[in-house]
Amino acid sequence: MTEGVQDRQAEAGKRYDVFHTDCPARDVVDHVTSRWGVWVLISLRSNSLRFYELRDSIRGISEKMLAQTLRGLVQDGLIWREVEPTTPPQVTYGLTEFGRDVGEPLTELFDRITLRLSPHSAG
Fold first, then answer.
1. For 27-47, how does the pLDDT look when each residue is reduced to its tens digit (9 = 90+)?
2. Cβ contacts of residue 93 below 8 Å, gap of 6+?
3. Higher-scoring residue by pLDDT: 113, 7
4. Are 42 and 79 in contact (CB under 8 A)?
5. C-alpha to C-alpha distance for 90 and 69, rounded to whole angstroms
6. Rg (alpha carbons) of the chain, rounded to whole number
7. What is the predicted pLDDT for the residue at 123?
8. How confident is the model at residue 2 (pLDDT cuts 50, 70, 90)?
9. Could you tell me where the DSSP H helices lie in the chain?
10. pTM score, two decimals?
11. What are the extents of the domains in the chain?
């Protein structure tokens, strides 16, 4: 498995500055807050899913965009990817500890919005 951004530490006592374009944490923020990144993390919050289950759970996402989003989130260390050597290969994705940590406030935000949205403002 490749090293994720969470494994690389900023200098002792310093935090990453995501406002700088060369900050490695900026890519993680961009992937998480992308159009589909949030939905992938929320979809995986309860259990791991195979590629097609994940695609079906996120309406409107193309296979190409899902694959691209997953690739970035795996590279960042937010989700893990497991390939079963079957024909065709079955690929399963789930949240890493880092992904659960990042996804928790997103889930809270999602829950707050869906619980407080009035029925007549959703359309």
1. 888 888 888 999 999 999 999
2. 40, 44, 48, 49, 50, 51, 54, 70, 74, 79, 80, 81, 82
3. 113
4. no
5. 18
6. 16
7. 58
8. very low
9. 24-32, 37-43, 51-57, 63-75, 97-116
10. 0.77
11. 19-107
Tally Cβ neighbours within 10 Å of residue 102.
Answer: 22
Amino acid at 96: T
Supply the DSSP symbol for 37. Answer: H
Phi then psi dihedrals of residue 71, to 5 deg: -60, -45
Task: Spell out the CATH class of 19-107.
Answer: mainly alpha
With beta carbons less than 8 A apart as the criterion, state whether 78 and 102 touch: yes
Contact between 82 and 91 under an 8 Å Cβ cutoff? The reply is: yes
57 token code pair: 């759970």
